[in-house]
Amino acid sequence: MDVEELRQRLEHEKEALPLPESLLRRQLAPDFSLVDSALDWLQSSEQNHIVTFDDPVYPSLLKQISDPPGVLFLKGDPATFLLPGIAVVGSRAATSGGLQSAYQLASEISELGLCVSSGLAAGIDGAAHQACIDSGGKTLAVLGTGVDVIYPRRHKSLYHKIEEHGAIISEFWPHVRPYAGNFPKRNRIISGLTLGTLVVEACRKSGSLITARLALEQGREVFAVPGNILGGQSQGCHDLLRDGAKLVESAADIIEEVSALCDFHLEELKSRHHIGGEKASDLPFTSLLASVGYETTPIDAVVEHSGKTIELVLEQLLELELQGWVAVVPGGYVRLRRS
Q: How many other CB atoms are found less than 10 A from the CB of residue 108?
């Protein structure tokens, strides 16, 4: 039965319909009070934005999933959408070790120039968001409430910091309160926004595994951090690893998998938004920069490829690192930007 037929039956055969008339009318007629409320919210702050599916800043990766949201409500900087990102998720009741791992990995990811997406939940989510803020990076919080509803309340300060250092988004209308069924639904956005999802700590019944499953269905990479086998807090991560997820000990493990996708995504964004690059003649130490790959490159390989002395290589690598061209990772260096 299509919508027009349903309208006709609602008008002429209401008694024969199996659903309450009030429910059917709500589905067939827009609630203009909600529209008015959303427009009032939009005009209440310069930080508030409504991003529709055909908006130039609507995330291209999110458009590729099977059920992308038609509208996103956003607080913060819409340009955060333009950064390639990694989702970091995990247990709300995280252990101290899990929180430390999430913070360290999110810091490393952020320092590599990637945006970290998560759900503003207690535990791993909060640690990941805070790490990005502390490292001066960008982070996206995807809410299961209205974009103006802070949940949990303990994250009020973190919420406002994310607004300043990235963006807070939701597909739900402003003022929508916490509802259990909305949180699994928002997980498809967390995974859909990103090149891959990293699960830091999760038991077998964790909602984080929903995000990981959705990432797989969306054709994205899945990563997991191994944990203590004596407790149950990391059983979900171990199951993911058995099923083929990439084991992660540092951000370099992630970059090895997504660097090509990241470069492709950046080039697509540059083309779509007419972003120009720097001229090769303006780049520092071009010959040395060419010796550093987008995967971990050992220092001895850089020295051999560049033909320079190790003292000069270390001096110039430090300059490149300070200018944001390369980053130090376990085992060597990785290149962060294309010339």
A: 20
Do the beta carbons of residue 91 and residue 237 sit within 8 Å?
Answer: no
Of 118-122, 227-231, 261-265, give the range with the top mean pLDDT.
Answer: 118-122
pLDDT of residue 83 exceeding 60, the answer is yes
Q: Is 95 exposed, middle or buried (0-12, 13-18, 19+ CB in 10 A)?
A: middle
Angle between helix 156-164 and helix 124-134 axes, rounded to 10 deg: 40
Report how far residue 304's alpha carbon sits from residue 302's, in angstroms, rounded to the nearest whole number.
6
Widest distance between CA atoms in the chain: 87
A 10 A CB-CB count for 254 gives: 23
Give the chain's end-to-end CA distance (angstroms, integer): 55
Host H or E run for residue 211 = helix 208-217
pTM of the predicted protein model: 0.71
Is residue 79 within 8 Å of residue 101, measured between CB atoms?
A: no
pLDDT of the residue at 11: 54
